[in-house]
Structures
1.
Amino acid sequence: MIERCQEDARPRFGPRARTAVVLAAAALLAATSAAFLPGTASAGTTLGASAAEKGRYFGTAVAANKLSDSAYTTILNREFNSVTPENEMKIDATEPQQGRFSYGAADQIVSHARSRGMSVRGHTLAWHSQQPGWMQSMSGSALRQAMLNHVTQVATHFRGQVVAWDVVNEAFADGSSGARRDSNLQRTGNDWIEAAFRAADAADPNAKLCYNDYNTDNWTHAKTQAVYNMVRDFKSRGVPIDCVGFQSHFNNDSPYNSNYRTTLSSFAALGVDVQVTELDIQGAPANTYRAVVEDCLAVARCNGVTVWGIRDSDSWRASQTPLLFNNSGQKKAAYDAVLAALNNGTTPTDPPTTPPTTPPTNPPGGSCTATLQDGTRWGDRFNSTVTVSGASSWTVVVAVTSPQKISSTWNGSPTWDSSGNVMTMRSNGSGNSFGFTTMANGNWNRPVVQSCTAS
Ligand code: G3I
């Protein structure tokens, strides 16, 4: 069994205890490439790049069958640095027949994302809905075993590629009862949720493991409080939970409430990360979109925001036009509001930690010089900016100290060595500087510029 340590003492992307060296933040890089990367986007002009400058990601749900739509992928690749498969990792998609797993569509999305430096949220391992027929007809210990095997197999398949999993989705009932939702999974025993988390933990110790739900956004609602109590209980008993996802499907019947920030911060205070996982808002009012983003930015442990689709026509409720791009792929007012919120957002304060001790190193390299400057610092990570002089087209090599991991970059095109600790950044026309976020993972050494070469 995996023992969990004091979460409160850990950095934001705190690990499960067995992986004290491989902090959960390291999962942000998965096995070989950086996560939450904004690709070639420019800071301040795209959602992903602007979020990265705030140490966050900005993601979207993606449907595999739309990856052949160039209008769709143009926006996806330009704007987003995190991806959640909309349906392709669900149980009916990944295990259509018992014991026969099918990963084609999900692998396609993962490959598209990771090859462009986007991170992947996994959705979802255990859910009462979208179960394949064989599972729907199961019950009792056979269902429990089948569910655990599904969690194990799928989490194992994507190990190192998925930075956070919605391990369990929508397990609580709507309304005022505060009860668990009745389902075949729930009827296998009240401990089915923690059993799923332990199975996911064993299969992928480095992924962040989330509980995800809707109508848990309003702090006063019974469902919110019920999930809060479950998470508090899990933390007290060492159940391996790292994060809580707030779907945030806001509409006229279930509107955004200004206590949303209280909800996020209250859960975060339990020692879990919080993520806005499926955001869409009926009519896409700019002010509400702005408020949601500002609320996330105000909570240090809010890692990022995912919208549930790109264009209104991609939405599961398209008639409500709830997204940031219209059917033609044009930016809506809500897009501008979100971008402004990301760019103006305040940096949450975390307790100061020991300043970096390693002196800057800027050895000459070729015919250009790269100078590293310290940027914003949080409790678990810090930004750095590198300014290049002497060349307009350049290649700069930067190294961080293991177990540090670079979790996002902007204004350049990065590639990585096999360790993930040495980044080769090439100019991409965005100017003579680039930036990146380093997950400290307990080590606050300053990144080192190893070389600068005109190219
Ligand atoms: O792909 C088939 C298509 O071949 C077929 O002709 C058509 C006929 O119904 O169905 C298509 O599949 C649909 C699938 O979306 C892809 O469009 C399913 O019927 C439909 O049920 C499915 O809906 C998804 C829904 O989850 C299922 O519960 C939505 O796309 C997806 O956005 C939605 O996402 C959920 C999250 O997972 C959890 N939170 C709520 C959120 C919104 O409901």
2.
Amino acid sequence: MVTSNNTTFIPDIAHSFKAQAQPNIALIKYWGKQNIPGNVPAVGSLSITLEALRTETVVRFDTEMSADAFVLNGASNPIGLPRLSRCLDLLRHEAGTHCRAYVESENNFPTAAGLASSASGFAALVIAAGKALGLQATRSRYAQWAREGSGSAARSIYGGFVEMYLSKNEKTDVITEPILNPEEWPLEVVVAITSTDVKSVSSSAGMEHTRLTSPYYSHWVKAQDEDLHDAREAVLARDFERLSIISEQSCLKMHGLALASRPGLIYWSAATVACLHAIREMRAHGHPVFFTVDAGPQVKAICERQAAAEVARTLESINGVQKTIISRLGHGARLV
Ligand code: PMV
């Protein structure tokens, strides 16, 4: 067994390695894959990493184990195991080992409910596993491995505002880069949780169904570079108004595509829609806030810091909102 540094890989069975990562929320949405293996996105995307929601993952490699083991939130998770093992295989390949791993992961927020737990989960996994295997890889290599676990996980390797885009020369070459640190534009996010149920159609299944059946899909792909460019400029200029408009449009376009697929995908609940109206109304009254919604019924209200408490109060008063979480922007995945 040989590592990438040409030294023999001896699993450090006495030690567990722990990493933390935070979910990220896309302002310009990734929806659609060009290649399902490897999760190569059909479109670029732009996200913010959240501080208050966290995944902590512990990894230990062990030569005595005949299969990987995965415990999620305190319970064995056989459903998530094949995907986790496929991602670990990439790192094992790099390290030149077949050694199996024990993985234990904990989220401080609802799992698989439209709060990007797979993004933080795979980002934390690759960072902890890479350390356990003694790999000396760059952040962009970790982003690539995380993406192969879950498309959006590449963005959680970094903090603040992060862009994931397709290389101009090689369209299957995916580049993930931070564009602003959290401190450079300290926006906040109010997450309105309207349900903690596991979503009925996963993002991967939903985007593939949309690609195959939505009449608007090709236009979505064609227009994305322009949206990404607009959002990047807005972020670099700290132009809240401009970012509000392009982000809400990207979110509504993504859901518009999904709604128009056959049969249409409806990720929203009545409370989701009520939150969107309330956010629009707050903005009309001068509060710097805009919304985004992923593949689930939760609403994320992005706002300037001084508006966060009022936005949370307003969203909490809406029928069907179970609770709100206020978050600053967070940093990238790291060992803890
Ligand atoms: O990475 P996935 O397969 O969970 O897909 C993420 C899809 C959205 O959250 C809806 C959009 C995005 O860019 O994060």
3.
Amino acid sequence: MLKVEHIGIAVNNLAQSMPLFEKLLNTPCYKTEAVESEKVTTAFFRQGDTKIELLESTDPQGVIARFIEKKGEGIHHIAFEVTDIEAEMKRLQAEGFTLLNDTPKPGADNKLVCFLHPKGTNGVLVELCMERKE
Ligand code: ZN
């Protein structure tokens, strides 16, 4: 894995949280993007070499809505950048980790992504992501 590409933070309300994080990070949000498949709207902030991704649910039954219901707002996942996502998925599977999707799927910010089951990672939801080249 190359580096921490971004940290995902679950929020109730992007309109409220964006100005808060702009103040906190002292940088403007550079992109908001809806990810239909995940039922979320995302907002991205650059922070040095990495990013912060705020996630607001667009659906009361969505994963982010359910996460907030259980645990409250806060850190939702850590995303690592990889050069070859399929090779990394194979490697992790061989090491006994459980993948939440069998094939890489389209994520926010022009990425292919795969999540690992947090049961196998001490409760940390891990995302692998790779820049899409098309
Ligand atoms: Zn993410």
4.
Amino acid sequence: MNFFKTTLTAAVVVGLGLTACSTDKSNDMDSFVSDLMGKMTLEEKIGQTNLPVGGDFTTGAPMDSPIGELAAAGRMGGTFNLTGEKIYALQRVAVEESRLHIPLLIGMDVIHGYRTVFPIPFGLSASWDTTAVERMARISAVEASAVGINWTFSPMVDITRDPRWGRVAEGNGEDPYLGSKLGAAYIRGYQGDLTRPDEILACVKHFALYGAAEAGRDYNTVDMSRQRMYNEYLAPYKATVDAGVATVMTSFNLVDGIPATANKWLVDDLLRKQWGFTGMVVTDYASINEMTSHGLGEQKENAIRALKAGTDMDMCSDAFIGQLKEAVEKGEVSEELVDRACRKVLEAKYRAGLFDDPYKFSDTTRIAKYTLTPEHRAAAREIAAETFVLLKNEGNVLPLAAKGKIAIVGPLGNNRDNMMGTWSANGVGNECVSVFEGFKNYVGDKAEVVYAKGSNIDAGDRIEQGSQAYGGAMRDPRSEAEMLAEALQTVRGADVIVAAVGETNGMSGEGSSLTNITLPETQRKLLKALLATGKPVVMLNFSGRPTVMDWESENIPAILNVWFPGTEAGNAIADVVFGKVNPSGKLTMSMPRTVGQIPVYYNHMNTGRPNDSGDFHAFSSCYMDVPNSPLYPFGYGLSYTTFSYSDFTLDNDKLTKDGKIAASVKVTNNGSVAGTEIVQFYTRDMAASLARPVKELKYFERISLAPGESKVVTFDITADRLAFYNADGETVVEPGAFKVMAGPNSRDVETLDFTLE
Ligand code: BGC
């Protein structure tokens, strides 16, 4: 039986609102796609490689593409950022009106939830909880697929060491091992095994090295040695390939001087040949056209370059569709390359099950049933509470008792829109719970909760005038003095003040780089005035990146970093502030003391003149004015209980190439409440053929301990865990001296020595 014919019948039947009939699954993907491609004209094949934007919301210049006409003519392989019923309507045009009835990929940046919004990815990473990330991705897929989305542009696994870069908010921070574990969890959550109608294609991005943009300025140049790439930046992309990610997005930046989209070494050699990736490669937004600005000439040659490099689908440049036909006809590029790209697009559709049932993702009954359900909201609340990082808790100000008068002050204290963070897909600001609302929900009539705004965000006119940075009606027309006076009035008689300060959700994310990542002066003034009342002050810091909080950490007794927590923000914050949930999040990027230290990251090289003391020593590698260390190190985060580490041992101090040694540490909960600790193990290579970092995270475990309970956590060290990419481009394991470290963060570790024989 002809598979495609059967599929088409099924599609039309479903399109008429009847039930889908079963399809003959005996044909494998190759023969199915070959058969289909045998019927396609050159133009139709090129059409599959075209990805115009749908237009409901865009990330670049608004583009009014006539996508309905393109779909009917078979001149596009998919679209993205289209919402609601338009998705179904467009799919129907492609399936019923185009000559070969090929369904469309329907993409969207569903990166931390679709309608139920979860914490921003950077916040999620602070949970160090792969299960939570997988669950979040699974729920995102369920909600997004219900409206017909079959492809998400997530996860972003770019390693980020520069908090000035706004897209820190979208990633997993500075560590390749943690980034790999989390990246793979996203893939499992979105894709499952791609058999169910609520599993969608994932797209890992941005391949590659986008997080290393110079000076943290978005879209800026990247230049990096191969050994740094392999040893420090590439692992998370590779981990998602190993986890079966269906698609990969190339990045905007240069790699070895060539834009990633046209970089044959990157896409063809590394991704496909070395890593064995068999899926589809899509460009980032208009990145073929941006090659002209990079200085690589005109659209036609860049379309050819991208195709030759191994890129299959052109997002928003209209370059493949505009240039490839003529290029093939003139012999400037072979039709085989167009065939390869078209095949990859069709294979992605096949894997998504679109040829079985093009409407499997467009079942309107599922929208009501699976969108923003109480279960999804409960998951968002639970997961958000895991992402908060307790940076300071002097005198155990936290947790608060639900009694007396609690004053919430600050520009983010009663704001719903800004709880969602960057890229919140189809999230609705008004469905979010503000801090004030969450606190009132929590305490009921047990305590009085009052609120005053206290100040504007006041990050400066240039930011305020920027298009996205101030999402929602953030600016209060009242003067600074008036707002402060109102706040001081409101806090009268309060037992405690909770200051909700930080950035708006538009101050991080794409196109939102900053050189100043301290709290704006107006907000600092507000904090000073609140402290001057003599009342205990708890600071909730909302941010999409590490904040420079030298003054705050010196002066405010309790600081909880809450990132942007999503739909259930206020409830989740209340759960932690009042101690129903004990905070367990740990930083995934170092928090600098000052912008001038950036990049500051834990897994740096030692240099020939290290300075670990923190004091200034001339002719050692340090600054005259501040220590090298960050204010809060990678892996850092407090709890309402205290954990002690003891009995750190190795069962052997010699490791053979095929053997293993067990590094064990006993962790005890010494406090009076249960808590979750993230136990971390690092190694250091002391005698390699090239310089290796002072520490590399190699293993972690989240453990929950009742008061007084202890648990032994073991990291099995094997030689392959110590491998690295050497100066000759080989991955090697070199014998010699090593150190292994265990502790609650990257700074406060105990160290043992062993030798690899
Ligand atoms: C971003 C991508 C995103 C794409 C589509 C681009 O500007 O860099 O991360 O997936 O737009 O929205």
